[in-house]
Amino acid sequence: MCGIIGIAGRGAVTERLVDGLKRLEYRGYDSSGIAVLTDGHLDRRRAEGKIVNLEARIADSPLDGQIGIAHTRWATHGAPNETNAHPHQAGRVAVVHNGIIENYLELRESLASSRTFKTETDTEVVAHLVDVELGKGLSPQDAFAVTLKKLKGAYAFGLIIDDNPDEIYCARAGSPLALGIGDGEHYLGSDAMAMAQLTDKLIYLEEGDWAIIRPTSFEIFDEADKVVQRDVTVITGGPAMAEKGNFGHFMLKEIYEQPETVTRTLTNYLDGSLQHPLMSEELDFKKFDRVIIIACGTAYYAGMVAKYWFEQVAGIAVDIDVASEFRYRRPVLNERSLFIAVSQSGETADTLAALRYCKENGLKTAALVNVMTSTMAREADIALPIKAGPEIGVASTKAFTSQLTALAALALAAATAQGAISKSEESRLTAELLSLPRKITEALELDLHIEAVAKRLSTASSAFYLGRGSQVPIALEGALKLKEISYIHAEGYAAGELKHGPIALIEDGTPVIVIAPHDELFEKTISNLQEVATRGARITLITDEAGAKAASQMASDIIVVPTGDPFIAPILTSIAVQLLAYHAAVHLGTDVDQPRNLAKSVTVE
Ligand code: F6R
Predict the structure, then answer these.
(1) Model's pTM, two decimal places?
(2) Boundaries of each SIS domain copy (predicted)?
(3) Most buried by CB count within 10 Å: which residue of 204, 266, 342, 375?
(4) pLDDT by residue (tens digit) across 473-510?
């Protein structure tokens, strides 16, 4: 994750841009940079490392202007050095970017004969593309609009153009971006924090929006390049309130952050080119023939999915257990086992106790956590960050998909280390992982439809979630999400298991949510769907396009998530079950962010 700030001002901007960057430093500090238009001409300064280095660079060689953009980087493509620091410049264009341009290699290739690339980044190609269009005589507005249509991925941009003294161009798809409204000035920022000292009036750009910001005016366009109006949000209260933005609940905000949080996780577990899993010396999978995953609640379900990945992709056996049971069953351990604790907080008492137990028994221990200052991160031999950022909603959402993403990438690294997959299969699965931010963004577009489905679900007193294979844990997670925030009783089951007892509970109108992407188990899951449908169940089918084609007539409601390889499908269906639970709870008027009887960090056994 990177941080972006821009000012279309009526006074000098450099100092204020640097101040904004300091508030964004939590989003990354591999390098930083600033570009301004001085008398209409582009000038930039960049530095490796923290923002103090950029300040020193500016002190040595001052620059100022009334229009400027700035960036603090958390390295994705390319080493964290000054060459790869943003803003990137090509000809007349300078750009700052947060996110991943998935098709950058293809785009670079298309310009290779006419353009020289100076960096290893995915971002530089955007500056070149806009500059090429300007060279053809297009206006800045048209050049920017044409370029956006060529990009595939999840991104937020700010861009300025030499000899175009009054404008900043910006766009969002998947990564957040807000406009700030000041007194004779306008701003641009990754979040409210970036603009906290500048304004309390924000406009959160919507998916696919782009905008032109001038000191005294701005225009916002939608994906189809139509001028649109977006609501102004006035930020009140402290920084925590500001962070909720224009979302009604932290939980919804965190659900919507997932394209970005998953990007951050990915960039931590893939190599600099984002073409391969990161092979770490600290965690050498050649040394292990078994993995033990221990966790609680939602984190446990992430571990359950990982069992499929490690076993199917890497051929490594996985034991998985809930932390509260693990050490009491006196498990048989051996030193060729790697222990992985999965925990958002890194403080859950049972998971911590399991970690200590394995350490005492001589196992190598790793903690996959969100909070890197936590006890687990400190006590484990290896701390593995998921980088989801603070999760405030008690019901875990973005931490879950980041846990899944990290575990998928680790399974891929294990497969490569063990020689269990070919190079081409490794590349194919890495590309699938890389498509996640975009596909999650597409899944979020189902929100309105899912809200309508959730409204019907909210009248039930009990519901079932069914899945097969790696969708079983998602069925369990869907049921957990629904019960913990809406208080509707819900159970998740392996679809084939229902007829061994629980099917007795199905009666006319019982809601059954069947999670069945069109994979090798699809037909079998659909047979189980029919077993409950004939007994009167009201079916909601969560599937993909091929699944919808084959089975839409069997369901009362259908939620069609983006198609993904079975390797990433559990992450995509997670988004649907999260939104379903969220909207059911909102319909019922429960306290979504702080449901009764629960705590975010469970530090008692
Ligand atoms: C459910 C939820 C909990 C946690 C569990 C473990 O939405 O958030 O089930 O997953 O309490 O917490 P951590 O991950 O902090 O160990």
Answers:
(1) 0.79
(2) 279-420, 453-595
(3) 342
(4) 999 999 999 999 999 999 999 999 999 999 999 999 99
